[in-house]
């Protein structure tokens, strides 16, 4: 019925097991392409994404710090203006080394009767009378005012029947400061000043060198000790002299210019 050729083609053929395995594994055989040429899957965590993630927190922290600093400046200006409207204080002949918790302090709260409460009277005007101790004048430098390099002249004021205090007499240009050529008043003087404390020192400010007469920042206690300390009747009280109600003026001569109200 069928031709021999057709019958031969319809007969089942035996396929060797090894051949069948090769046929089944053909589709699942791994690629021989080297791993170097395969596409690399990068993680989404990278320096750029980390930076983008922390930027909002950094911006928020910076903004908070700026607001706090602005509030501090506004409060400081308000405090300064309020205290400068008050009448000048008269310092007692000798400010005692009493504790701030002393029961007598509330009775004398209108004057700085203890060194421990001096910070509470910062920016308060004080009236002083005495004689300058020019032999112990100190120069706070370098300082710059309106582009002019110079120094602040700090001279002890010896009060009659009272302790000696330190007074910042104002600014003088560098040439006159180094030549020790600036105005020196003799005899008894009356001045108006403003109570201050030691300035905060940053990490870039060098150490003071009293032996060489080099002062970079007003360390009130060290300056008082340099002049003679408690044994010589010198107390760590620092006053910035006020020169009327006029603005600062740059000093190119030996005259001193001082604090602005």
UniProtKB/TrEMBL annotation:
<dbReference type="GO" id="GO:0033617">
    <property type="term" value="P:mitochondrial respiratory chain complex IV assembly"/>
</dbReference>
<protein>
    <recommendedName>
        <fullName>SURF1-like protein</fullName>
    </recommendedName>
</protein>
<dbReference type="Pfam" id="PF02104">
    <property type="entry name" value="SURF1"/>
</dbReference>
<keyword id="KW-0999">Mitochondrion inner membrane</keyword>
<keyword id="KW-1133">Transmembrane helix</keyword>
<keyword id="KW-0496">Mitochondrion</keyword>
<dbReference type="InterPro" id="IPR002994">
    <property type="entry name" value="Surf1/Shy1"/>
</dbReference>
<comment type="similarity">
    <text>Belongs to the SURF1 family.</text>
</comment>
<keyword id="KW-0812">Transmembrane</keyword>
<dbReference type="InterPro" id="IPR045214">
    <property type="entry name" value="Surf1/Surf4"/>
</dbReference>
<dbReference type="GO" id="GO:0005743">
    <property type="term" value="C:mitochondrial inner membrane"/>
</dbReference>
<comment type="function">
    <text>Probably involved in the biogenesis of the COX complex.</text>
</comment>
<keyword id="KW-0472">Membrane</keyword>
<feature type="transmembrane region" description="Helical">
    <location>
        <begin position="44"/>
        <end position="63"/>
    </location>
</feature>
